[in-house]
Amino acid sequence: MRAPAPEYDGVLLIDKPTDHTSHDVVARLRGILKMKRIGHAGTLDPMATGLLVMLVGKATKLSQYLMSVEKEYTGTIKLGETTNTQDAEGEVLTTQPVPALTEEDVRKALAGFLGDQYQIPPMFSAIKIKGQPLYKSARAGEEVEREPRFIRVISYEVTRWESPEIDFRVLCTKGTYVRTLAHDLGQRLGCGAHLKALRRIASGSLNVSRAVTLEQVQKMTPSEIETVLVPGYEAAPSIAIG
Fold this sequence. Notes:
Blueprint lengths: L9 E7 L5 H12 L4 E3 L8 E8 L6 H5 L3 E9 L1 E3 L8 E4 L7 H9 L3 E5 L8 E2 L2 E2 H6 L9 E14 L2 E8 L5 H12 L3 E11 L2 E2 L6 H6 L2 H7 L3 H4 L7
């Protein structure tokens, strides 16, 4: 008689590869763990890599709490080109020369985004308006009026400046579109810009340094999987789950 598949509970930190949607990761984990009760605490665009907080078993009850925490990213912005998706996956819309900027100029420009503000979500996003995801309207060539969303940019730093590229690190509240920050930076600098690369390195107290890949999980025994699951009380110490 075949032994029943183990039932896991906890938070599994996955280092998401590029070209995977968050839904793809959920589907693959359901196949690996032989469980349906798996979700995530915040999506990443297919192009992005890094920390995807996966909720397994009873830990799915932590979704709202873990989605609300601050997020930290590193990435690269390319100046001089705008795209219809605001990132490297889209079609190039405009090309302009990049001004002769110094690193101090770039630092000051990024500093201008610090603090509380309202951000208009991009058309290529999963936000639904009248029941329709915005990206479907965008693919149909339609422009839909979007309500600005309140966000806070806590820190926004240059880690490398080599024209036309800016490497950065940003800490921001949930719901912040980093590709929109890149696009808006290009508008402020008068040359346009898009997000070339993005990696999430932290979500609240959870860091990508503790994450494993899908391939690693695939090769683990049930006891090894148990060792990499973060207990719910550690991931969300103020929330009790049962």
